[in-house]
Amino acid sequence: MTRYRDLHAASLEDREAFWLDAARAVDWFEPPTRAFDPEQGAYGRWFPDGVVNACHNALDRHVAAGLGDRTALIYDSPVTGSKRSYSYAALRDEVSAFAAVLQDFGVAKGDRVVIYMPMIPEAVVGMYACARLGAIHSVVFGGFAANELAKRIDDARPKVVLAASCGVEPSRKVAYKPLLDQAIDSSSHKPEAVILLQRPELAAEMTPGRDHDWAALRAAADGRTTDCAPVAATDPLYILYTSGTTGTPKGVVRDTGGYLTALAWSMTAVYGVKPGEAFFCASDIGWVVGHSYIVYAPLLIGATTVLYEGKPVGTPDAGAFWRVIADYGVVTLFTAPTALRAIRKEDPEGREAANYDLSSLRALFLAGERADPPSIEWAAKLLGVPVIDNCWQTETGWPIVANPIGIERLPVKLGSPTVPMPGYDVRVLSDEGHEAGPGELGNIVIRLPLPPGCLPTLWNADERFRESYLSGFPGYYQTSDAGYMDEDGYVFFMARTDDIINVAGHRLSTGGMEEVIASHPDVAECAVVGVADKLKGQSPTGFVVLKSGVERPTAEIEREIVQLVRDRIGPVAAFKLALTVKRLPKTRSGKILRGTIQKIADGESWTMPATIEDPAALDEIGEAIAARR
Ligand code: COA
Ligand code: AMP
What is the CATH number for 220? Predict the structure, then answer.
């Protein structure tokens, strides 16, 4: 462990030297003379005098270096039956021309552009076109409902929205345009224009005066070029909204120079990928994993990224990922444990893998939720490569804890994503702020400053940033994860300490769902908990108390509540079960005992809380669950 330990210690002891050295992987317009300025921002800012451009680093610099013919992006879409690949030069030209289109709409440095698009190359072109101009993109995941999109439009206040007419799910086509129209109708901020990509699978009607046809604009811009705008390293590259503890999402701000530095470092040191190799990150561009390791990091180092529009199973079968690996000589696959569980459920013996040549694969990385040891062991046996857990958050942008195989492959301890990455001074603190000993459970925190790449603040919400992350333990960033560190410094993430749950690798707020359910006219109060689910990790379940005097059949109301969550938050919430109870178990001070409800729902052993107001309420929860099993 010496190489890792030395490196980690160096990153904390001499952060200037460590990160200025790492920053040499980035092509700066003006190289930074200092790594960190502790006086700026909430906890300091990285590369305060560096000037840079993300698109230049991902595309133009490689073309200028004579690598224009190398494959940058492979689009593979089993749901539409299409495949397409772009060389670095071709992608640069696409982005450069589309940036000219954006310029025609007045998009300039600092303007926001919301992107509501599925996993198609045009979405990546849109993101890079923004980066090229110094505009700030904000991608919204397609599985969210209009109401969630509206919240993001109101917060980001985009000049332009880029959208596609539809997404394609295995079971249905998702018409994006009606959702977008509904969102813009209900938002107070109105974007000046929508640039709409008509997909052949489901075209949409254009709204005259507001909507513009992507293909026509792009065709008219053929041959036009734009320059990469120099931006300050501290300027935002994007805003990515993530679940907070209320229905109002948090706009995580990502700066430019620190992010590029951290991504370039991690691509080789953590993921062990070299220029020219193919990297397959099976996430979605609507999530942070997709931003970092589908869109930006592979291209920063001159590797090839695979943009896969499909699922791990059912498109068409459980061999889909193995087919992609074989077709493109993928060296590293990065996915969520839930995807492995889905594959294993369909193909427990792993027979599909035998149909493909997987000899190119060197490692499988897992993130997004706790990697369950049975899935790790199953995949390691099947694929014969190291299966490596890594843990991070939308807020951090790259792994907090990982196994840096590009530096030194450390022994795996099942249940732990291994050790803190450079710049992350991870500690475990008791609720009172005392440092926990090895093996002692506590709050996982990061001693400030956070390393480059992590959020400097929340969009237009500096105070919320301080309150949410910095105020709980002064001098530390609070991850809101509970866990422990062992005597070798391995970190174990056990559970969230807030109301966030993880459903199929998707981060959701139970508080947000409760807000929606409470808006149903028949509901007096409710509690949503994440119940253990074999496939998705957790699955949200709502317990509902109806207003007195409501006489309608409870089954009907429960169906309406399920539909309400789907309509207001989106299908991605996967909220399928609402159960009516007479009362919710509470403490004498009125706090709903969500932790105990969850234990009962999970069938775990639980003890009667000493402060409970009415013990019979807990029996009722058990009965409601038993009645549905
Ligand atoms: N646009 C529109 N709808 C979407 C969507 C998108 N981009 N993604 C998911 N949905 C819908 C699904 O169609 C489904 O709708 P339904 O209720 O009508 O069936 C619903 O949202 C729930 O989707 P999901 O939770 O993904 O469940 P699933 O049963 O469709 O698939 C898995 C299960 C495990 C195969 C899938 O969740 C998966 O691949 N997960 C990996 C997630 C991941 O990579 N996360 C990133 C972290 S690294
Ligand atoms: P997100 O912001 O969607 O990436 O979700 C971040 C949260 O997901 C973390 O705070 C953890 O609770 C959880 N998480 C992500 N990766 C892991 C992992 N490898 N092990 C355990 N929990 C994880």
Answer: 3.40.50.980
Distance 309 CA to ligand 1 centre (A): 12
Find the residues whose C-beta lies inside 6 A of ligand 2. Answer: 242, 288, 367-371, 389-391, 393-394, 417, 479, 481, 493, 496, 502, 507
* Four-point Cα dihedral 116, 122, 123, 128, nearest 10: -130
Which residue from 392, 403, 413 has its CB within 8 A of the most atoms of ligand 2, so it is best to mutate?
A: 392
Quick check: is 175 in a domain? Answer: yes
Distance of alpha carbon 411 from alpha carbon 1, whole angstroms: 9
Residue ending a domain, among 229, 245, 267, is 229
Q: Supply the range of the domain harboring residue 530.
A: 504-628
Q: What is the number of the ligand 2 atom nearest to the C-alpha of 506?
A: 3
Domain count, the chain: 2
Structural domain contains residue 293? no
Q: How far apart are CA 252 and CA 135, in angstroms?
A: 16
**290 alpha carbon, distance to own chain's centre:** 7
Which of 353, 300, 362 has the alpha carbon at shortest distance from 324?
353
**Binding pocket residue ranges, ligand 1, CB within 6 Å:** 118, 141-143, 167, 169, 171, 174, 282-284, 287, 289, 311-313, 335-336, 338-339, 342, 367-368, 504-505, 571-572, 574
pTM (global) more than 0.70: yes
Positions in the chain short of pLDDT 70: none
- Three-state SS annotation for 554-565: HHHHHHHHHHHH
Q: Which of 112, 100, 286, 98 is nearest to 191 (CA)?
A: 112
Among the candidates 168, 198, 229, a domain finishes at 229
Question: Which residue blocks in 395-507 are alpha helix, DSSP H?
Answer: 462-465
Separation of CA 491 and ligand 2 centre (Å): 13
Can you tell me the distance from the alpha carbon of 172 to that of 202, in angstroms, rounded to the nearest whole number? 11
SS3 305: strand
Contacts of 495 (CB under 8 A, 6+ apart): 481, 482, 483
Nearest CA to 165 among 194, 197, 209? 197
The answer to whether residue 421 is domain-embedded is no
CA distances from 126 to 27, 182, 269, 553 (A): 22, 22, 29, 48
Q: Which atom of ligand 2 is nearest to 417's Cα? A: 19
Distance, CA of 419 to CA of 430 (rounded, Å): 20
If you ran DSSP here, which 8-state letter would residue 358 be given? -
Q: Which of 169, 344, 508, 562 to mutate to test the pocket of ligand 1 (most atoms within 8 A of CB)?
A: 169
| Angstrom distance (rounded) from CA 232 to CA 224 | 26
Residue 194: predicted pLDDT: 98
For the CA of 508, the nearest ligand: 2
Tokens of 146: 């209009």
Digit-coded pLDDT (tens) for 410-443: 999 999 999 999 999 999 999 999 999 999 999 9
Query: Partners of 474 in the beta sheet?
Result: none
50 in any annotated domain = no
